[in-house]
Design goal:
Helix content: over 70%
Number of strands: 0
CATH architecture: Up-down Bundle
Shape: globular
């Protein structure tokens, strides 16, 4: 079908922003709330891996293998997601979510029993495959239920559900670790948390099937590779993808290597860094999320990236834990602005037929960043780099993200 000849309501989500009952779509739909609940539970099984580098050290894994094993899970997601995105539709996304959740649960249960490098590699690949399938399905539904005129607010609020586990799980794991045989058992404890997610998927499947029947047929046609390549040449798309890649690569350096640095500074509970950072992020997005669609997105992204590029190198020079936690709050504020604005920007610059696919490409950039950051960081630490040097590198990568996005500012003002 020629999309250019589609009726006027075709470009947007179901019936030009309406639910099947004819009411105008708002953000707080059952579908959105269900996706948030599933996201909270799903990301609990990722947030606990802030300590995975320390766990590999505890197992006596050769330093040269720690970075690759750390990054193998996001590498799997990186390789799978571009192909997965072409097969996801609103009608089948929940089935993909179920399959992904099953694989992720199986991987979590296996961690306590895998201590050799080959076995760990297999579990990391299985975990990555399960998680990318789950999150791909979530994004397949989310991009169809968010009203475009409230996209930044919607992504900001949805991202709160992603952040809650990162605020809660690290300090919780630190508290229970002394009572467990090792980190592997802490990872397995996340498996029972997935049961409520399975329960939420049943009514969500019925609702999304009803919404899919109201979609214009143009939205049910999978984009061809030619359309995907043309979409990447669309103004701003590639720059936003690169900006997201560099942002996440810098963030992953902080996420995976801050724990050991906080311990060096004398932190009693190193997980509190993530609690402070994510508490600030959640506060900004909840209290000011409605303003994200009203501000100059391009200018705000420039300011946020500049601030983060300055802040990250300062982490390595914090003289005490109290100051480090204060800096964590500033870091969380910067992250509160960048991620939802980048995702909202992608919806703005993307051709309507490629919005869902490009949203998944943004997740590909996340996977690539979470692969590159720990892989490079692990290699540099093994080569003798210090944590302050690593955070300085992160600041440079954050600056690259800002420079990528800078020319896109005019496109984000419409």
């Amino acid at each position: 079908m020629n999309h250019d000849n589609a009726p006027a309501d075709a470009p947007d989500s179901p019936s030009a922003g309406r639910h099947p009952n004819g009411n105008e779509r708002g953000i707080w739909s059952f579908e959105f709330l269900s996706l948030c609940g599933i996201s909270v539970l799903a990301f609990c099984n990722i947030a606990i891996f802030y300590s995975f580098y320390a766990y590999l050290t505890e197992l006596g894994i050769d330093p040269a293998w720690r970075g690759p094993l750390l990054s193998l899970e996001p590498l799997t997601a990186l390789l799978v997601r571009p192909f997965l995105g072409r097969f996801l539709t609103l009608g089948n996304s929940v089935r993909f979510m179920r399959a992904g959740l099953c694989l992720a649960v199986l991987a979590l249960v296996c961690y306590p029993f895998t201590t050799a490098i080959p076995a760990l590699a297999v579990v990391r690949v299985m975990h990555g495959l399960g998680f990318v399938t789950l999150v791909g399905g979530v994004m397949g539904v989310l991009t169809n239920v968010l009203p475009r005129e409230k996209s930044a607010q919607g992504f900001g609020l949805f991202s709160v559900s992603v952040l809650i586990p990162y605020a809660i799980m690290p300090p919780f794991v630190e508290m229970v670790l002394p009572h467990l045989p090792g980190h592997g058992y802490a990872y397995a404890l996340a498996a029972p948390l997935m049961l409520p997610a399975f329960l939420l998927m049943r009514p969500l499947s019925r609702r999304t099937s009803a919404l899919a029947k109201n979609l214009h047929p143009a939205h049910l046609i999978k984009p061809t590779w030619a359309e995907v390549h043309a979409g990447l040449r669309h103004p701003g798309v590639l720059r936003l993808l690169l900006g997201n890649l560099f942002l996440v690569a810098a963030h992953s350096i902080v996420f995976f290597f801050m724990r050991d640095f906080a311990v060096i500074l004398g932190a009693g509970n190193p997980g509190m860094f993530f609690t402070c950072a994510n508490a600030a992020t959640i506060t900004v997005r909840v209290a000011g999320g409605h303003l994200l669609d009203k501000i100059d997105k391009g200018r705000m992204l420039t300011y946020a990236f500049a601030g983060l590029a300055i802040l990250l190198p300062l982490f390595g020079h914090a003289p005490n834990v109290a100051l480090l936690l204060s800096m964590a709050a500033l870091y969380g504020t910067g992250m509160a602005l960048t991620m939802p604005l980048l995702n909202a920007g992608m919806l703005i610059v993307s051709p309507p037929k490629l919005r869902a696919f490009n949203a998944n490409l943004m997740m590909v950039a996340v996977d690539a960043g979470f692969f590159a950051g720990p892989f490079l960081g692990g290699a540099l630490l093994a080569a003798g780099w210090t944590h302050p040097a690593l955070f300085t590198l992160g600041g440079g990568v954050m600056l690259l993200a800002g420079l990528c996005v800078l020319p896109v500012g005019k496109l984000l003002r419409r």
